Amino acid sequence: MNIQHPDLVVRYIKTKNKIRRIVSYRNNDCELRKKHEHIQHFLADNFVPSIFSKGYVRKRSIYHNAIAHLYNDYFIMLDIKDFFPHICHKQLSDMIFYELNKLTPNQINKLECKELIDLCSVSSRGLPLGFVTSPILSNIYLKEFDGIFYGRLRSLKLANVIYTRYADDLVISFKTTALQTHSDIDERIQEIASELLARYGLQLNKHKSRSYNMHTSNHVRITGVNIVIDSKGRRHLTVGRAIKNKLYWDAIHCFESNKQDAELVQKIKGMQSFVLSIEKCGYEDCYSENMMKKVYILGFDSLRQLIDSF
């Protein structure tokens, strides 16, 4: 497909380290998006995702990506370099053919696999950031990798080794009683990941590889969610104080303004839903007495009640 397709718009977004090209639809009702949504539903109905993949899968989220590692002590974070742009169409086609015909034979033929990828891409390699089909296609691409990688991790005989993947972020954790870093294990796991990813035309971003030991730190952050050890030694998930403080002040400002901004209200409710999805309840415990006193003065028993009043 040509990038100049009338249903497509190209945007460039500046992130911390690079400029990303996003190929999006001109509008939600355009013909191409409708075709992609049909393909996405077809793939979702006929593909069984890897148990290790926590992103772009029904009923899985960053919460599930973090909680899987809750009771381990040593964490290794790896990142696939430029994942979506480097997905090989030939290998992806073979994987679609295998995965979709595994449960239902003759579900799709090889020519249809190629035509599907052609319709869901804008060049001879890679998947566009912005297409509704790219996430599930990327999970199909790495399903085989996930299984082989976990098998290789198990062969290292680490205690309670856990592996999860959220798109291009790989997290490996295991139990340890040692205070020191496990540099030998770090290096070996990176070697295994690099060797396997090379089979799929991918490589690690070595600058983003990092490791943490909960014996020397009381928290670790996994795809935006913190695993924290409290003063009583109990572990739990949290989004962090900064996000909850922003939620508080945005809500107070919105309530006190004479004219509530509909976009801000939607943003606040979305942020609260995100916080509740991670912490479930009790997220207001971090607020000071003076902060909660302000909520009570406004006539509410809790910040959540105030937000729900919008």
The radius of gyration over CA amounts to: 22 Å
Beta-strand percentage range:
15-25%
Largest sheet: 4 strands, antiparallel
Order of strands across the biggest sheet? 4-5-3-6
Kindly describe this structure.
The protein has 310 residues and is α+β, with helices and mostly antiparallel strands. The protein is 43% helix and 17% strand. The protein contains ten helices and nine strands. It has helices at 31-46, 62-67, 89-103, 110-119, 134-154, 183-198, 241-256, 262-279, 289-297, 303-308; strands spanning 8-14, 19-25, 74-79, 159-166, 169-175, 210-213, 219-222, 225-229, 235-238. The strands form three sheets. The chain has a four-stranded antiparallel sheet with strand order 4-5-3-6, with helices on one face. A hairpin with a 5-residue loop joins strand 8 (225-229) and strand 9. Helix 3 crosses helix 5 (134-154) and helix 7 runs antiparallel to helix 8 (262-279). The model has no long low-confidence stretch (mean pLDDT 93).
